[in-house]
Amino acid sequence: MSLQFSGRLKRLQGWGFVGLIWVGLGECQLPIKAQIVPDATLPINSVVPTGCTNCLITGGTPDANHQVLFHSFEQFSIPTGGSAFFQPDGGLLGTLESIVTRVTGQGAISNIDGAIASPVTLFFLNPNGIVLGPNASLTIGGSFIASTADSLQFSGGGTFSAVNPQAPPLLTLSTPVGLQFGGNPEPIVNRSQAASAFPALPVPPGLLAANAGLEVIPGQTLGLFGGAVSLEGGNLTALQGRVEIGSVAGGTVDLTPTFNGFAASYENAQGGGDIRLSQGSQVNVSGLGGGQVQLQGQTVAVLDGSQVLSYTLGNQPGGNIDVNAIAAVEVAGANGPILSGLRTDTLGDGAGGDLNIRTGQLRISDRALLSASTVGQGSGGDLTIRARDLIEISGSSFETLQQTLFLGAIQGTVQLTDAESGLLVGTAGPGAAGQLSLDTRRLVLRDGALISTTAAGSGRGGDTLVNASESVDISGSLFLTGTLQGTTQAAGNLRLDTQRLTLRDGGLLQTFTFGSGAGGDLVVTATESIDLLSTPLGAIVPTGIFANSIFGTGAGGDIAVTTNRLTISGGAQIGNQTGALLGTGLIPFGGPAGDVILTVADTVEISGFSPDRRFLSGPGTTSFSGAPAGDIRLTTGNLTIREGANISTTTLSQGAAGLLTVNAAGVVDLVGRGTINPLGIPVEVPSSLVSSSGRADFPGLVASGAAGSLQITAGELRIRDGAEVAVNSLGTGNAGTVEVRAGLIQLDNQGTITASMVSGAGGDIDLQAQTAVLLRRGSLISTNAGNTDGGNIAINTPFLVAIPQEDSDITANAQQGRGGQVVVTAQGILGTTFREFLTPESEITATSELGPQFNGVVVLNTPDVDPSSGLIELPTNLEDPSDRIVSGCPSDRGNRFVVSGQGGLPPSPTQPLQSPLAWQDWRFLQPETATAPLVTSTVPNRTIEVSAAPAVRSAWVEATGWQVDAAGQVSFISQQPANAAQTAQVDLVATCQPIRSSL
């Protein structure tokens, strides 16, 4: 250890620091005198020339091993232009490791606006407070520790106290191990802007402050420990070394010797005060390998363009920045082009250091930035934030973010240095970006905030892990990971776990690739709900969740969303694209799009479009390039789509559209239509589930790729008020197939299921309903075709029901090709029938405009049952019953109604029918042999043959009608003969008899 410090002293002498300090010593040449007054508390007291401005300090008491030299002062202040040089006795230079200085005078604040010099590490204690002025500077051969602690603790158990100078014998003290604070420690203020004594670091201009402020030699520690610690335009510099700033309310700050000085720990400290960097202050530990910074307090604020920097140069790994704030960390504002921030970027071959923040709340605003990035060969460090309650990031505006960053990314002009107001874990060189980890209760991004793990060079993008136990709210801000144009490596993945996720007013959660590497996967889990709301006017892209591939050939990542309830409205979307159509034009380049997998336990509600009607709401995958679009798989309880919104897989190019699969345990309800205006032309669009080649709202984009297929499984499918399920092809591509498996399929008020095409093939519909398929009020199931053959329709259901007069049709018609095939398998087909042409009524057709010989086929499979069986044709000629009355009973004298004969009407309306006949069971009780003769009975128009004793009785046949003979006898028959009597006339005979009185 002694050789090490001796070497440091030799380096100081070699740099000319000792000679520099001696200039002007002796006679005081300045009117302001230094207030450096020794006390008389040491065995060997400090010696300071009286009235000096540049003061040579000698004397002091060494420990027994001559490793520590103790000085004690009643006052210690240095005026502007003054200096204090601690000169040990020459016999100590070979062994001395540190000088320990205390101020014992009560209320004697140390105001230092000059130079302090020491050949070895210097500890400076003043419990009354320390103020370091703009001209304060250090020429120290080791570390510098300034503190408002009461005492310094040593490894032997002793203390060197500034409030109790009668401490244990100094001879027992050796290595400093801690700072002991009393209650309510006084503050430390640094305003130093002193010039650096060392060559400038080889970094791009503008990254570092022009002045070093308080500075120690490279590789050493600069520490400030007190109550509140403020840097008011002042800088702290420890190149390749360590800066420790601790603000405590009491207790002990432990000090551990390290290779670059001392590291502080706060397990035995109490509470904390404020650490505040303002007015463009800078803490800098950059250099070959980079240094380390630790900030510990109740709150930490980095404001007004202030910075905490650990840039890594060379091939050595960089150091970390650790910020621990019990209550809050705030990073805000800028000083011209200089952003407030904390950065552990690497500019060389060595890996960058990590940036770690642990606090209650973190707030970043007004162009402030936290960065752990790389622009060199070295990999970037990790950025880890643990904020117990809140992480809140806000920018200057959403419009500024769009213009400077989003458009720049599209145009290929964006740089990592363009990032503002947020978190950046990026790479602009060969090195891979690090990992971003956020753990909090609430995460809020608003007004143009940015979180990015973007790759702009040849290195891989970084992964992002977010755990927000309560909520994530992204408004008018970007949260993304991706690769920019010209890159070759894969983008990072993004995983977000929370209870509630809200994206609104331009908020984006996105992975992307603009290069040849694959885009990252995006996995979102929100245990309660996800709300995607409102795309603002003038937005370049809609609010939503995306994983796109644009410009390059890299495949887009997959999107996996899991939640209990999903709401999408106001033009918000979930989507994967290959290529893009933006307000700036069409980008027809991109790799294969990824899939979208949505798992929603309860309900999905999708509605409407953006206020300017440029963006529809809903999940979708789209191909604007030659690469295929991705698939969509939705699993949910209930799905509702309203007001022109949709779920879609689409191709607007030669790439194929994806497969759309919807599995709903309950109801899928598609309702209504809407009018959008994406390209300046109003277009009415249905609420829909659709996989298409071409789209009506983009008439200028002619697609040749095939439409995908659509598969729906639901308890009930409702399509009403102009809504649609479709696999259409508007160009030359083939149409897909619609497959529906549901308990009930109901189309109402122009609800439509279509698989139409203009010139491509395909276009089939397969419907299976466990209960029924119902068509009401002009609804349509269609596989109509233009310049090709009609598609096929297969319907399998117990009942196919339509209202004849409501013109609900099932059609497989063609204009310039053959009609398709319609096959219906049902127990009953009600209200619709096959016709060879369309009428105003409900029908099933498969026609061709080329002529009847090109018509398709309609097959209606129903059970082999005579629908008239068991029905009796009622008489059509009604007769006047009055001519059946033999005589009437006068109403002017007593009468009674007498019914004669057997059976007939009861004696009174309140009595049951009484008959003297007893019922007899004529069924055979035992099987009989066939020895009985055949009995033949002849009745009018009917001969009945009955075997009196069949060997084995034939099965009973259910009666389906009856006939009445001339005698009025009724016989039940299984089939009524064509010439049987249709009616039997029976006269009722009533007589009038006087009523005998019993009186």
UniProtKB/TrEMBL annotation:
Residues 38-155 form the Filamentous haemagglutinin FhaB/tRNA nuclease CdiA-like TPS domain. Pfam families: TPS. InterPro entries: FhaB/CdiA-like_TPS (IPR008638), Pectin_lyas_fold (IPR012334), Pectin_lyase_fold/virulence (IPR011050). SMART domains: Haemagg_act. This is Filamentous hemagglutinin N-terminal domain-containing protein. It comes from Almyronema epifaneia S1. The lineage of its organism: Bacteria, Bacillati, Cyanobacteriota, Cyanophyceae, Nodosilineales.
